[in-house]
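To illustrate the input format used throughout this study, we show a single complete record. The first block contains the structure-token representation of the backbone; no residue identities are included at this stage. The design step must infer an amino acid for every position from geometry alone.
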């Protein structure tokens, strides 16, 4: 089995748990995921199966889209609802104008301090493991991220909560964004709800609930498995005949000389049957090098 299945992850399990449950059903195929979702978070989790795992370096750089709820007045050690409360503060009266001003301030390239409870490693150990041991963990280094779009509005049911929609670059921590928005509003905050609705070119509307995916794998019923070729819809394509395909599968990049699509830096090489053979990168005006070779999908 080779392809990408879009899973709507439920709350209460980690992204790694989703991978393990699917892997148990598709052995011996390799399985991986794109873009970790915290256990409390829900939504879009692309799962790569078999040869699709080789695509990760080419499709993991897309923007992420989130919707969620920021709870004002309390901050937790994990910056989400699963953590222990570490500080509280009064929530000032918030006008629509103030909320709009803060949203505009964060819609930009910003410096962000990731949460201590994160998978960022120090001396080879994830920081969340150090924090769970009770060690005094220095915050991670500041990283520069971009919030390309941010909508903030008071929650209709609570005066101390904000609904938000955000589009951001990879590496952005929504939990840290919630914390910083709270500070900008003159209080403290944590992330109470988070749902990912977009990941690069993938959309939540095309995802299936995890129980449905597992049931289909158990029964052998059909389910929505994207092909390798479809995973990079905006990447130019080059279709080659069987002779060139054989040369490429033998590692001969010269088979691509003078064949790269005009103006393309990265391109897909497609067989006459429509399967993805390789990802290649131009190295000069007439030459290209093979980045990845994919075994036949059938």
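Output of the design step:
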């Amino acid at each position: 089995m080779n392809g990408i299945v879009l899973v709507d992850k439920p709350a209460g399990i980690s992204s790694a748990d989703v991978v393990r449950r699917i892997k148990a059903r598709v052995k011996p195929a390799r399985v991986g995921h794109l873009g970790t979702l915290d256990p409390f978070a829900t939504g879009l989790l692309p799962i790569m199966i078999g040869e699709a795992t080789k695509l990760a370096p080419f499709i993991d750089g897309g923007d992420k889209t989130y919707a969620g709820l920021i709870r004002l007045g309390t901050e937790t050690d994990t910056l989400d609802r699963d953590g222990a409360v570490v500080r509280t503060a009064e929530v000032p009266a918030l006008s629509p104008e103030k909320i709009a001003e803060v949203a505009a301030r964060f819609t930009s390239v910003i410096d962000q301090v990731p949460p201590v409870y994160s998978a960022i490693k120090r001396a080879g150990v994830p920081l969340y493991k150090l924090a769970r041991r009770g060690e005094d963990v220095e915050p991670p280094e500041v990283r520069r991220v971009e919030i390309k779009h941010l909508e903030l509005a008071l929650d209709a049911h609570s005066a101390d909560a904000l609904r938000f929609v955000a589009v951001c670059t990879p590496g952005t921590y929504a939990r840290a964004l919630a914390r910083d928005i709270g500070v900008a509003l003159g209080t403290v905050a944590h992330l109470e709800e988070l749902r990912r609705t977009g990941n690069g070119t993938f959309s939540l509307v095309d995802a299936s609930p995890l129980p449905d995916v597992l049931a289909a794998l158990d029964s052998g019923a059909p389910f929505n498995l994207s092909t390798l070729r479809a995973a990079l819809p905006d990447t130019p394509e080059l279709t080659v005949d069987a002779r060139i395909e054989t040369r490429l599968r033998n590692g001969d990049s010269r088979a691509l000389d003078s064949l790269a699509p005009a103006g393309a830096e990265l391109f897909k090489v497609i067989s006459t049957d429509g399967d993805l053979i390789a990802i290649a990168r131009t190295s000069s005006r007439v030459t290209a090098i093979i980045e990845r070779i994919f075994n036949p999908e059938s």
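Structural context for interpreting the output: The mean pLDDT is 94. Helices lie at 15-26, 56-59, 96-106, 127-132, 174-184, 210-219, 242-249.
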